[in-house]
Design brief:
Blueprint (H helix, E strand, L loop, with lengths): L1 H25 L6 E2 L6 E2 L11 E3 L5 E3 L7 E7 L7 H14 L6 E7 L7 H10 L7 E4 L3 H11 L4 H6 L10 E5 L5 E6 L3 H15 L3
Parallel strand pairs: 5-6, 6-7
Antiparallel strand pairs: 1-2, 3-4, 5-8, 8-9
């Protein structure tokens, strides 16, 4: 009998804590800043801004920080011939594009990690296949060193590099990175998981309320 009561007590406690955690997530009213590769949230002082960049998009047009000035955006890394996680990433970016297609304050930015193969024509073909809206979503290629540098030191998108510091490693990450209008990282999400896409949507709504 005591065992049964103890079991019920533990179940009630776990249920209570789970509900409390869910309620806390739903009641978040502001987002932290992420200033380092370990993604430790910092709530007061933004220190790390996405560095200046210049790449070429699916239409052969230059894309820079200025393109995204005053916009919040979601960034990721992919390559057109990827048959692993990239189709899921692209599919979920397309979902986000559809939700915010009429919102001028939100854009998307996908960087190829195979620039030696992903030429502008290939990016254009990929964009058409995935119904990319040119005014909303840039697929970019460019100098390999520049792309890998911004992935690792700008978006902190390469966990293996954080551990090994091996620049020869190929970058493959499932991260979606939420960047605010001032160029600061405000959220990181697994772009292959639906529950994280829902969390991203909630965080975008929070970020939109910032002055």
């Amino acid at each position: 009998m005591n065992f049964k009561l103890n079991y019920i007590s533990v179940f009630v406690l776990v249920f209570f804590l789970s509900c409390k955690k869910e309620k806390k997530e739903q009641s978040v009213s502001s987002l932290p800043y992420f200033n380092s590769a370990d993604f430790t949230p910092e709530w007061e002082v933004p220190k790390h801004k996405i560095p200046a960049f210049s790449f070429t998009n699916q239409n052969g047009m230059e894309v820079t920080n200025t393109t995204y000035a005053g916009k919040m955006y979601i960034a990721d890394f992919f390559f057109t011939s990827c048959s692993g996680i990239c189709p899921k990433l692209t599919k979920n970016m397309a979902v986000i594009q559809e939700i915010y297609k009429n919102d001028k304050d939100i854009m998307l930015l996908s960087h190829t990690v195979m620039p030696w193969r992903d030429s502008v024509p290939l990016l254009k073909e990929y964009a058409i296949k995935n119904k990319v809206l040119d005014h909303k979503w840039n697929l970019v290629t460019g100098n390999k060193e520049a792309l890998y540098h911004i992935a690792r030191t700008g978006y902190f998108a390469d966990e293996d590099f954080t551990k090994t510091q091996d620049e020869s490693n190929f970058i493959h990450t499932e991260n979606f990175v939420l960047v605010d209008k001032n160029g600061y990282i405000r959220g990181v999400y697994n772009g292959t998981i639906p529950v994280d896409i829902e969390r991203l949507k909630r965080h975008i709504a929070i970020l939109k309320k910032e002055a």
